[in-house]
Amino acid sequence: MGFWSGYERTVRVGCRDLRVWLVRARCSPCGVSHALVPSFLLVGRLNVVDTIGSVLAAVASGRTLGRVAAEVDVPFTTVRGWVRRFRDRAGVMLSGFAALTIELGGDVPFRWPVSVTAATIVAIVCAHRAAVVRHEVLTPGVWAFVSLVTGGMLIRSNTDPPWRVFGNRRFIPPIPFAGS
Fold this sequence. Notes:
Helices cover 42% and strands 17% of the residues. The protein contains 5 helices and 5 strands. The strands form 2 sheets. A 3-stranded antiparallel sheet has the order 1-2-3, with no helix packed on it. A two-stranded antiparallel sheet has the order 4-5.
């Protein structure tokens, strides 16, 4: 891989729209290029990951979409889309982040919240806590950590699990398939 140009992208931080430069890397053998998305962003989303994460956590704790949307000054339909996408993937994320917590040597709760989305937020916090204990200096904030672990695909519209693979090892262990 080598650096290969890039492009400008708009990022929304609070009420301000900022322009950032995203670097692209190109694989020499196959010629395919990839955008290198920083940990404060998610792929295909305008808002920074801290805004999206705080909305997901607030809604998972029982707050209404309308109030949360008004507090972060984001359109209701945008917040609804984030929450829908997160709910669609919550089961896979719950399993993945619980497995990551255990792999990092952390503890997962014996009893989970009733809601799968709330349980997923708890699993995310547990995984982050375990990463901080293990790699205190290297661990970013909770939502930047989530962006790194999922490769920026936390609420992406694809259906594949977003686990990062380094060499022949997955950063989050694979989830056993429970199909028919």
